[in-house]
Amino acid sequence: MGQTSLVPMWLPLTxxxxxxxxxxxxxxxxxxxxxxxxxxxxxTTASPAPAPVACQHLQHLEVPQMERLGAQHLRQQLAALPxxxxxxxxxxxxxSPELHSTSLTRLRVDYGSDETSAAGLPHLPAQFPNxxxxxxxxxxxxxxxxxxxxxxxxxxxRVTVRHLKLxxxxxxxxxxxxxxxxxxxxxxVDELARLxxxxxxxxxxxxxxxxxxxxxxxxxxxxxAIKRSGGLGLGVFVSYGDATALLTTLRPLLEAVPAEExxxxxxxxxxxxxxxxxxxxxxQLTPAVRTLHVAKFSLAQEAWATVLPSLPATMMRLQLxxxxxxxxQVEEHVLALCSAAVRPIMVLVWPLQAEAKQRILxxxxxxxxxxxxxxxxxx
Length: 379
What we know:
The protein is α/β, with parallel strands linked by helices and 379 residues long. It contains 12 helices and 21 strands. It has helices spanning 71-80, 114-120, 124-127, 144-151, 189-192, 216-229, 243-255, 259-262, 275-284, 307-310, 330-339, 354-367, and strands at 3-6, 20-23, 27-28, 33-34, 60-62, 86-91, 106-111, 133-135, 141-143, 158-161, 163-165, 179-182, 186-188, 203-205, 209-211, 236-238, 264-273, 291-299, 317-321, 345-350, 372-376.
């Protein structure tokens, strides 16, 4: 037989040629997935225990989601499945050090805490020496010891994990991975550079938040990895007000990705920026950037008039968030910003009351400045 899906009926595992078994809603026994025993015929007659079953050709086993195998049961199953190459299971905790399979090449685990992940990863090389793909998208955080274990597996080619927790560099370790997928919502440039990036053909990150780096060499290594990967879905640069890191990272990363990824970007937290920082920021933005969002935005008083003249001539929209509650000088700041406009541009400000917007537009009209289309959001 070929592939069989059970929802929730069970295939009689006496069939010797089954190669793929996907289980849903069943019970995991000491041998293999088997149906629950029928109710006893009488109070004195119990159902016979299920007989051990062998599936010498079974290659793909998918365990029901939320169904705990138990480490002992899993050991027995692997021992009885000499051809098993693809295993999907639920709990990382069941991967006890005693497990072993030389036939397994793909392992997917759907659940596990940081603690069980950290405890389980170092054992993988001895457990599954021929593993080529590890998919632990939603459970696995890789720390330094875990990464060392994964890098020691010469057969491993594709790795999917939740995020990294690296505290030291592994950049010089040998690596020949085809694909690394990080399901986390952010890309920490400094942490990513602790990987042996030159040995990874392609990197994919689940989110679009970027935590920039102050170190130009670090940025250059990450940029090279991004170029090999064809882009990383950049969008939000989380600077925490660190203008040096932002200015070191922004332009190189933007230039490493396709133009469509540069059209709209966000800078989160730019605090008390000087006119020089504003001018440098404008120089870091590529011509492909059409919309710039700046959240939690504040500038030195003399810097407001430098913002719009510093932006690329191709930029069409600037969105500024002042945080909540808005500073008392927000109306004064927006007027200073808009008064310096020398070309058409749309400016959206949050929070700004409608009455304040009308006063700003009236003053701009008195100046003869019609370049700015001003939008305001009060909430």
